[in-house]
Amino acid sequence: MLRVWGACLGAFFGYVALSGAIGPAMAQDVAITEQMARAEMTVSGRAIVIERNQDQSARIEDEFAKTSRACPPFCIHPMQVAPGVTTLGELEVIDFLQTRVSAGSGILMDSRLPEWNAKGTIPGAVNVPFATLAPNNPYRDEILVALGARKGAGGELDFSGALDVALFCNGPWCDQSPRAIRYLLEAGFPAEKLFYYRGGMQDWLMLGLSVVRPAEQG
Amino acid sequence: MIRLALAYLGLAVIVILGIVGIPGISLFGEDEPQAKLAPAASQPVTETAPAVDAVTPVLAALARAAGATGEETAPAVAAPAPQAAAVRPGAVDLHSMTAAILTELNRDVGTAPAVIAPAPGADDELTQMSKAVLQGLRSGAAEPAPAQKPQSLAGLVTQALAEGQSDAYIDALVNEAVGRGVSAPDGLLTTEGKVDTAVLLASIVARAQDEEQGEGDAPLPDVVPVGDNPVMQYLATEDLLYTVEPGDSLGALALRFYGDAAYYTAILAANTDRIGTANRILTGQRLIIPAFNKL
Question: For residue range B161-181, what is the model confidence (pLDDT) as tens digits?
């Protein structure tokens, strides 16, 4: 009996070794673009990989396949969220991570509430719930300072050295990142430093792109 | 011998399955991105979690929070959604995750009025969220910036404290940051023009204690906790004339005489004719320390 278990164990490790060898050859049949199988970068000392689900039979099912949510509140947002704010697609989000976020000059902001962020977000994103940017939050200025604003002697904020901020939420039907963008603009954040990933989690998941749960990132 | 043959047969079958790629058995390669997803809650989440997009009700609740009373109705904005305990480790569960999110979302749309109810705890939620945000921003993407973007001194110090750094390290860190152009807090420049790190530390600790006690960001406490603060020497119960010594700062004096560096403004106000706009005091300068009960 022991020998059988031993053989099973051997079989398992044999499988592991074999799939390890085969894996890379099969791994990237679903690339991000022709030139880019996967995107790798380092954000805050943490290695990040963005790639696509390699299961070519994978489908969006259940609620994310849903076409019709009540509007209001789940209304379709325009391509241009506000004058001067640049709208991003997935490749631009990846590029934003690789260039600005990696370099410390930008931040990818998940505008959703914490429990939704905890369930899965774009790798490298920082959770800044829209409500924390509202004018009624006494900590808002502190957050703005953490985003690179400088407080002058009279308490006024100087955004000239502020980070570039790219925001997203659940998708084109989600109001949370547009709302966060409005709050930032109202606070004086320069529009040219703001970026809107309109597709949000809906489009990110629809393309099978990598998702992380922040709690497991360590 | 037969057992051994069976075992090898088993090995062969498993290897073939691996190559063909039966979902659920394949451990590597194919499902890699999904594997990162980690187990999602495999059942609709909690009764209290608010809708992802029920922003208006949540905001309204947050806005009302200040004036509202009561205890139980706060939306559990920051409450972590409980995870199903039975999720298999490493389960590939994109779909149930998305399903859970949206099930929750749709259900909450229907129950939005419950969320909008007066929410006295909402400020706490907002505070908690803000703290998490600040922590995330300071330890996250915004942190490793090379000299380019200034951070708040309090943030630097808090982070260094969290890392268990020594006071000497923190002092060096703070003064290096000020040298880089991070603005020094009012009242904390010593006679040498350095930042009074000891006072900065004490005020950060005091603020953290205030927050723990739920006093929010009230700038000045009603009662000075005499004896609570080792830096404090005595309470100024009557007007004093104080001669500035090397290394003093307004914050240090406020801490010494009132127990809280935030009171430096009182000393400043009593000495406007002596102290310039830079809030810098000079060794040998004589300052009026107003009695505490006159503040």
Answer: 766 666 766 777 777 677 666
Q: What's the token pair of residue B156?
A: 């630097």
Tokens 């954040």 appear where? A189
Task: Reduce the DSSP state of residue A202 to 3 states and report it.
Answer: helix
CA separation for the pair B91, B38 (Å, rounded):
6
Residue A56 forms contact with B (CB below 8 Å):
no
Q: How far apart are CA B160 and CA B143, in angstroms?
A: 12
A112 vs A177: CA distance, rounded Å: 8
Nearest to B110 by CA among B68, B62, B57: B57
Distance from CA of A153 to the nearest CA of B (A): 9
Asked if residue A123 lies in contact with residue A39, where contact means CB atoms within 8 angstroms, the answer is no
Distance in angstroms (rounded) separating the CA atoms of residues B95 and B112: 25
The rounded distance, in Å, linking the Cα atoms of A197 and A112 is: 13
Question: How large is the ipTM?
Answer: 0.77
Question: Residue by residue, what is the 3-state secondary structure of B221-280?
Answer: CCCCCCCCCCCCCCCCCCCEEEECCCCCCHHHHHHHHHCCHHHHHHHHHHCCCCCCCCCC
Give residue A181's pLDDT band: very low, low, confident or very high (50, 70, 90): very high
Indicate the residue of A127, A132, A151 with minimum beta-carbon distance to B126: A132
Find the distance separating the first CA and the last CA of chain A, reported in whole Å.
Answer: 41
What is the C-alpha separation between B233 and B258, in angstroms, rounded? Answer: 9
- Hunting for tokens 């406490």 — which residue is that? B221
Confidence (pTM): 0.46
- Using a CB-CB distance cutoff of 8 angstroms, which residues of chain A are in contact with residue B33? 51-54, 208-211
H or E segment to which residue A151 belongs: strand A150-151
Q: Distance between CA atoms of B244 and B289, rounded to whole angstroms?
A: 11
Residue that has been written with the tokens 């241009």 in this structure = A80
